[in-house]
Amino acid sequence: NINEYQGVVWYTKEAIQEIIYLSAISLALYKDLKDPASYAKELLQRETKAGYQLHTLLA
Questions:
Q1: Per-residue pLDDT of the chain (59 residues; tens, 9 = 90+)
Q2: How far is it, in rounded angstroms, from Cα 21 to Cα 1?
Q3: What's the CA gap between 18 and 15, in Å, rounded?
Q4: pTM of the model
Q5: How many domains does the chain have?
Q6: Are 58 and 38 in contact (CB under 8 A)?
Q7: Which helix (H) or strand (E) holds 43?
Q8: How many H helices and E strands in the chain?
Q9: CB 32 within 8 A of CB 24
Q10: Could you give the CA distance from residue 45 to residue 43 in angstroms, rounded to a whole number?
Q11: Cα 39-42-48 angle, rounded to 5 deg
Q12: pLDDT tens by residue, 23-38
């Protein structure tokens, strides 16, 4: 879930976390990602630091 308020695009934590987990699983299965847990952990740390702001997360 994403919405825009006063020019800032915000996301819901649960939705982004689900995308992170699914991408880690997908990369492990289809692209032979060797350590999906580390991949997910790094993205989850970035997600936490972004403060629910999509632009900050993608920067």
A1: 899 999 999 999 999 999 999 999 999 999 999 999 999 999 999 999 999 999 999 99
A2: 16
A3: 5
A4: 0.83
A5: 1
A6: no
A7: helix 36-50
A8: 3, 2
A9: no
A10: 5
A11: 140
A12: 999 999 999 999 999 9
